[in-house]
Sequence to fold (337 residues):
Amino acid sequence: MKLRKLNRVTHRDIGYLIAGMTIIYALSGIALNHKHDWNSNYIIEQRNFTTDIRFTRDSSNEESVYQLLEELGETRNYKTSYYPTGDKLTLFLVGGSAIVNTTTGEGYVERISKRPLFYQVNFLHYNPGKWWKWFSDIFCVSLILVTITGLFIIKGKNGITRRGAILTVIGILLPIIFLFIY
Amino acid sequence: MMKKIIGFAIMAALFAACGNTAENKAVNENDKGVEQVTFTSITENPDQYLGKEITVEGKVVHVCMHSGKKMYIVGEDPDIRLFISAGEEVPKFPTELLGSEISVTGVFQKLEAGAEMEQEHAESEEGEACETEEAIAKQPVLADMMLDYKAHTVK
Fold:
């Protein structure tokens, strides 16, 4: 098999194989780029409330907790409470939590649900296990291989010796410029 | 050809389904005779358990919302939290664990050993985790300790 044909076949077949993985990493990459702007893993819905109920740290606090749950309509979802030093009382609920400032009486109920697609791709991106680590290493090597073989697919004026060379150099220079900027 | 591809996809899905069995694993680990330790005994004698694989019970009060690779549990004293760090052997901790009483098994060790991982998690969580981490730093005990997670069961 001629070298050029081998190059094309390698590029084509590995390209097909890693298409899914590339999309997984690209999507989660976008999500992680914007992690300060939004939570890509979970959809979090909040509703605010204010209560006059007073809370204590003794055993009677459970009564106050149930009073608040009744007010919020969350009694059936109640799991347990958490009240460390400070003025923040957390009531853990099925699918979320209610957090109340015990000094001001202000609080919010938070509902958490997994964001479809992004939760799953982020799960994989964050390296969930040993086997995935090796699998994604193979993917990364394949990506390098597809990129290198891709450089030599086209011959002539659009190939790597002319137009291709200019675009490739631009692609390398851009991240280097950012390095200098930062 | 299409049949082969579909067959491969089914195999992959089965493989994925089988990989996520942290709870089943926990039962086996406990059967192996890992030392059961109370939360209080860890807080009173942390050095006694250094480097040992132990099982401890506690309430989950924080789960990392981004990486999902860390969580905190408390015992009777709500101000003493224990940092549970998931290594690469396990998938992320689900937020459904929040507020649950769990029995967790892992290797009890100094935080320095996993400092790099901890830092990585802290950066990824930004403000959301700061409150818990600041509180941990003020703890009289267990502030510099962690449990390198192996398995857990929900009680």
